[in-house]
Amino acid sequence: MLVHDTIGTGRSQTEIDQIQRSLQARYDELSAEYEQAVLQSHVLRLVEVGDTAGDDQADSGTKTAERDTAQSLLRTILDRRAQYEHALTRLEEGTYGFCEGCTSAIPVERLEIFPSATTCVQCKQNRERRAA
C-alpha cells in the first residue's frame, strides 16, 4: 500500500487534526447509537420472552420481524462504525484521502459527503459492477 505523508497530501497539520476530530466525533456518535440499540434490543427480547402466551402466527411473525429489524440495525451501525475506525487508522498512517484501489487522491467533495470513503468514484463504480 502506498503511504503518503502530510506534505504529500497537501494538508496542514491543522487540517489533519480537524479531520481527525470530525472522524472521531462521528465514530463516538455511532458507538453511542450502537449502545442504545443494544439496550433496546435487550428490552425487546425481555418483553418478547415474558409476553408469548396466547400468541398466534401473526403475533409471532410481528415479533420475528421486529427482532430481525433490530439485528439489522445493529449490523448496520457496526459496519458504519468500522468504516470510521478504518478512516481513523488511514489518517494515522497518512493514507487517508487516497484511493485504496488506484492510489489517486479522493476528491475533497467526496470526502466531505462521505468522510469514511476509501475509494475514488471510478474505483467504487468498478467494485459495484463486479459485485453485481
UniProtKB/TrEMBL annotation:
The entry's keywords: Metal-binding, Zinc, Zinc-finger
Pfam family, one: zf-dskA_traR
Protein's name in the database: TraR/DksA C4-type zinc finger protein
Keyword Thylakoid set for record: no
GO terms assigned for molecular function: zinc ion binding
Record's keyword annotation contains RNA-binding: no
Every Zinc finger DksA/TraR C4-type domain range: 94-129
Zinc fingers (dksA C4-type), renumbered ranges: 99-123
